[in-house]
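Case study: DUF1501 domain-containing protein.
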Amino acid sequence: MLDVTFGSTRTCDGVTRRNFLRIGTLAIGGLSLPGLLARQARGAVSSRKSVILIWQAGGPSHIDTYDLKPTAPAEYRGEFKPIPTNVPGVEISEHLPLQAKIFDKLAVVRSAFHTNAGHGMGSQWMLTGYQPTIEVNDNIYPACGAVVARLKGPNEPGLPAYVNLPYRLGLGKAAYLGAAYNPFAPDGDPNNPGFQVRNLRLPGRVDVARLERRQALLGQVDTLKREVDAKGDMLGLDQFYRDAFQMVTSEKTLRAFDIHREDPRLREKYGRNDLGQCCLLARRLVEAGVTYITIQAGGGWDTHGNNFAELKNNLLPKFDRAVYGLVEDLYDRGLQNDVLVMAMGEFGRTPRINGTVGRDHWPGAMSVLYAGGGLRMGQAVGTTDSKAEYPTAKPYTPGCVLSTMYHVLGIDHHHVFYDQARRPLPVLNEGAPIVELVG
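Here is what the predicted structure looks like once written out:
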């Protein structure tokens, strides 16, 4: 077996995002892959709709980004001031000036909420639609990208359906859906001058014909393994092997991941940092045929201390430019109705500033950004009270946030799966698409 360690981040409550992927080394000339490929068996694809989720791990401060309260007491409103957007009546943070220029192409839901302030459980709720009952570092329920991989598959044969950038997301796995629907990740920063996706090229000593012979031999061996497999795990690994073979022999896959083909001026527009270049790579991948991409880059949003300096000097400038570059690029390419962009974290931050000039965990209110996907843009949906503590109009749950995304993809969020115990589990157990966005 092969242990592959992916990137690791740690939040304040000690939840580690380090993951170990244990897979059998492929018996095809020593070839191995750093992540299981999220692929559905090939079939008819109804549309080329796709999703890019910017996952703001740690929990971004809603009151300092999209839901400022300039008349609140100083210990709540903080240091930032609102600025007008190009949509009359809508204001956002002064440190999101590029998004303010294109807010007619964006929509923000200011009234999302849930009730769990733990990083792990909050993340599972927002990434899966299900609230776990215990704090764990692995998926109990399948992440949205895995559900999409299972029900929709890739928009183009030969591409993975589900990708994580730049590394595999700690709570982004397929759970009971099986190994075949886990995400593929390049395991490298696309802003690095030497960036390339590991193991997407054959070793020089192995040509395609030789690889095909070894694949056939592997298939004969796996036939024996399946006969003694009681849990059906080999079926998922079979799909993984088939997809691995197709990817390492596919020039279009190599081209899709080759960010060096992009004009340097466009790369600058996105921002020459990990978040900006992950967003640019995500655009390349959805254009090529990947269906669902989750990006976790740009730094941690868990700002318990020094909240305002960290947001002003680091987090918001990168985030603002990346979203601006991505949305503008999608419009320039005529992809604004086919690609849905979302940005959110596991919760918001406490409206009241703490003793270290920071904000703590706050699931009572949070903001979720949408762009494109054929949804209604140029609006701020919902309101919170005078201190941004709780929704006062149009409260929306994680199920509402995610069912809106499934609506864009044409996926029935009532579809029922069965876990290992044969319990029926719908894609989502609550929520409906946000009417202001889909109506």
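For the exam, be able to explain this: The chain is about 30% helix and 15% strand.
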